Amino acid sequence: MLKIIIKFFLTILIILFLIIIYFTFIGVETGKFNSLIKSKSNEINKFVKLEFDTTKIYIKPKELNLAVELRNPKILIKENEIILSNLDLYLSLKSFLTSDFILKRAEISFKQNDIKDLSKISNLFLPMIINQKINKIFKKGKLEGKFIIPFNASGSVGKDYAFSGKISNALINLTKELSIRNLTTEIKHIKNFNNNEFKIKINDGSIYNLKLTDTVINLKKNKRKTIITSNLRTNGNISLSEVKKISSLIGANINFLKDINGKIDLNTNINFNLNKFFQPKNITYSSGGNISHLEIILGQNKAISAYLPDYTSKVIFKDTAIKLFNSKLNSIFEISGFFKTKNKFEDFKIKRIYNFKNKNFNLDGIVNLASNNIFIPNLNYKKFNGIKSKISFDINFINNKNYNINSLEYIEGNTRISLEKIKLNKNYEIDDFKKVEITTFNKDIKNNGFIINNDKKIIITGHIFDASPLLKSLYKTNEKKMLSKKFSREVKVNLDKTITGTDDDILSLSMIASIKKGAYDKLILKGNFSDDEIVEISIYKQNNGDKTLQVVSDRARPFVKSFDFIEGFEGGKLEYESVITEKFSNSNLLISNFKVSKVPALAKLLTLASFQGIADTLSGEGIRFESFEMKTNAVGNVLNIEDALAIGPAVSILLDGYVEKGKLVSLRGTLVPATKLNAIIASIPIVGNILVGKKTGDGVVGVSFKMKGPPKNIKTSVNPIKTLTPRFIVRAVEKLKKNKNKETK
Fold first, then answer.
1. pLDDT per residue as tens digits for the range 406-428
2. Considering 305, 322, 459, 686, which has the largest number of Cβ atoms within 10 A of its Cβ?
3. Which pTM does this prediction carry?
4. Which long-range contacts does 218-221 make (Cβ < 8 Å, 24+ apart)?
5. Structural domains in the chain (count)
6. 3 state SS of 4
């Protein structure tokens, strides 16, 4: 009996097993669900109709589901037909017994259709806003693949939908200006315990002239968010118009670029999350690769041209590696390789970090500059093309707020310029600094060797300092200040030797000074040309806030050299006083007992005036003057000469006008040979008769003249005169009386 029962149950089990095997692998055709399926599909979406011939039912033992395969299926969506290769519906096993349509999911496989049909299908289960975007983005192409559409117990479409398939020869408009052309990509769906993952691989396609081959995009969906990670491979040529369009998408400002052309090969990783409202969050991206060749044309930059006289706006890069990383906290950009602005490539390496929270940049790097001419005017330093040099820097700044030079070092042979912890405001004025160390050479001869330390007091020490650039700008009022109003310090200077640009070097120069609110409040400077020749400079503040600058020098030549139109100056002592306000300065200059031998404008004036003998003297041993007095005022780079009188044994000159530094000289005045002037002075009691014409002179008394033009090309014109103006006579008599009074003392 027991054996019979066992055999019975074994037979039943075998029959059930065979039925399951049959239904699992062979299935059974039935029309039982035909009308039900068609009506239920229309309930889900009234615009959707399913058409098929018959159904075949399979069992999915692992899922405890029934799989209903629709034979020769097609979908009619608003009378648009989509041909399907397969349409499988998965129902609970209960549906087979109760005829209830408890649909768990639908799997739709379709042949190659127009990509626009994607929106027709996605409209079944995606939100309207996403479906509208899909319809705008996908413009043309072919689509084939498989949709998996989940359903909730209530019959509504679930969220864990999936798609696997292929897009071919598509045109996708990401924006109005940015499109992907000829896109061929494979899309795979991977289902695991916690996530739905989509893997997209681009086999072909391009953005502008950049190939996207081997680009991979991954999407992971969980209950809370969608995580998107991508690796974009871009390879090809770029131009300015394309770079502008791409940069506009990320808000980058490239207005400094005038043109760009080149070839790049980059791998870019872009990662972000989509929240339930499909808004991107936590965007990070990184990029790296190689620039084989790139030509950039920049805008003109006067600041760069001041130090690189051969600067051209065209920069060429080759074999250059770039890395870019962008996160919520910061953006890091690294570039290294080779560049040239002239005819030879130089290597460089630069790293930039931007902190989004503090809006702070950090820039460091090293650049070789062998192929560039370099000129640093304030140090009288020049480096010529072909001489090896490099600059390294570490700078921290916030645009239009502050600039901190943590370190900057320039090296060329034995030349070294080092800056430490320089703090600049938005106007590039110094707020504070720690240390400056300078060693430079001019024509292989050391012209600077000093150190500036700033602790509680500024201490400047060294064995040599080139002051010639400083002397050239003595009369110049510069609107751009070096020190900010935050800067206040006591200053102490000791220099063994100071170069003036002539043979008049100053030895044992010492200075004490006080700087308040970015300007010298007081200053006392002393130095020696020789044992019995000194120079003294002082600045002191007046009660009304104006400042007075006084210079007394037993040698005038270092201070006269700044006037480009005067050469061959010898001898002379100088006394100078200037009252300086915020906007202008008024000055008086006295130079006594000097000689000039190379003044092209004066030589031409003498020749035009037919004073050939004096002109010959000028070109020979030079013309001596007993004194030169000049009253001036300066505004910006313009020196206005209110009154200037030079008296000498050969010739005397009275003039006025203005000099715009480096650009223009404009003077007018009167020139009189000494013989005529002496004759007039000798007859002072009857000067009135001379002026009114009662006494005639012997020939022409002198000439009036005008001189105008660039310093190196001054145009001169003269007009002979028979009588002198009262102003000339009064000034000459005053000066002669002063000289006689000094002689009697």
1. 999 999 999 999 999 999 999 88
2. 322
3. 0.72
4. 220/195, 220/196, 221/159, 221/160, 221/195, 221/196, 221/197
5. 2
6. helix
